[in-house]
Amino acid sequence: PQERLLLNRLAGAGLTTFAPWTAAALLDTGEEEAGRMLWDMSHRYLVTYLYRAGGFDRFQLHDRVRDTLLAAGPHVLGVPEDERPDWSAERLRTSVDRLLRAFERLAEATARAAAPHEWSFGSPVPGRVGQGGDAPAVVRAPADPLAWLESERRGFEVCFRWTAPEGDGRRSPERGLRLRRAFTVLSRSGRRHWGAVGEATRQSTALALEMDDPFSYGVALLERAEVVGAQGDHDTGYERALTALRVLEQLDPPVDPRWSARAHRAVGVNLYRRGDLDDGRAEIERAVRTFEEHTDHWWWARTLCNLAEVDRFQGHLERAYDLLSQAESLLEGSRDV
User: Exposure pattern of 195-226 as b/e (b: 16+ CB <10 Å)?
Assistant: First the structure.
């Protein structure tokens, strides 16, 4: 019965490839038990074992099995009467909620491990205002965050469909925002999936507005600015960064000043890369002072590199070299290099 139910829920959730922890969430059971079930099902060709990636075994649901499950209901498939309530749309939705919760926590833990400097400046964390900071992961975090990201690329897409801003009104906008932010941080740390990241940040701003959460909205706008700027659209990047800066500076109670400093940096980078060198320098220097005051070596060094780029554009090569040397010294021995 559990195997039949798992196949039904995998198909209903829209998953094509998955790990044991995914199956465990859908069935509300333990990961080890779900793993044993999947291996047994693979021996009977109900699912296919693919490979191990990101620290997890991965399986695939056969296309024919999925199509049959989606086309025929439990009556046609001969599911016993006492099992049919578990096949209902309501039970499926409950199982998907568990899946989204497990995916969110693992994705957040993976993003924090991959890029702690991008994730937050302590509490509050975007999407978790009033919740006491980060939530603990319910499954072990992968040893290789980027390998896990690639293996769960389709899993993220499924989660995004279930938590879309234009969804059915039953999904959690907070969860949708947190999933998209984790995907954004992970993808940017590996410098990949720029198109999908742009769409994820766009939806994050819509979800933050729906949540009526100005802090999350400001951070989502800031990340949108950084993404479009990295893609060369510096006019749009400047406008979004400036809006994000205004939102972040007007928060009450205020948040860590480094969020505003990061926005100043984004404003400055987009300004100087579109040709406004002096105004761009002023914004970046302001960010440098804040990161230096907080002894935030990673952002301090990164912003010094931006300042060095302005000097290089203006022909001040010796000053640019000195700034880069200072940035290098700040990051000596850092695990972020």
Answer: ebbbebbbbbbbbbeebebbbbbbbbbbbbbb
Q: Is 69 exposed, middle or buried (0-12, 13-18, 19+ CB in 10 A)?
A: buried
- Written as six digits, the tokens of 49 are 């074992």
Distance between CA 280 and CA 269 in Å, rounded? 6
Max CA separation in the chain (angstroms): 80
Location of structure tokens 């059971």: 29
What average pLDDT does the segment 194-221 reach? 94
Give the SS3 label for residue 233.
coil
- Long-range CB contacts (within 8 A, 24+) of 236-240: 237/266, 237/269, 237/270, 238/267, 238/270, 238/271, 238/274
Strand partners, 18: 59
Confidence of residue 157 (pLDDT cuts 50, 70, 90): very high
Name the β-bridge partners of 47. 61
Residue 62 token pair: 């056969």
Mean model confidence pLDDT for the chain: 87
Q: Give SS3 for 193.
A: coil
Please give the backbone phi and psi of residue 127, each rounded to the nearest 5 degrees, phi first.
85, -5
List pLDDT tens digits, range 68-77. 777 776 666 6
Q: How far is CA 176 from CA 107, 182, 230, in A?
A: 12, 10, 24
Residue ranges of alpha helices (H) inside the chain are 2-13, 20-27, 31-43, 63-71, 74-77, 89-114, 116-119, 145-151, 153-162, 173-190, 194-211, 214-230, 234-249, 257-273, 277-293, 297-313, 317-330
The vertex-94 CA angle with 99 and 108, nearest 5°, equals 25
Closest CA to 142 of 176, 183, 114, 101: 114
β-strands 56-61, 17-18 pairing:
antiparallel
Which residues, listed in sequence order, are joined to residue 53 by a DSSP beta bridge? 56
Question: Residue 251's CB: how many other CB atoms inside 10 A?
Answer: 15
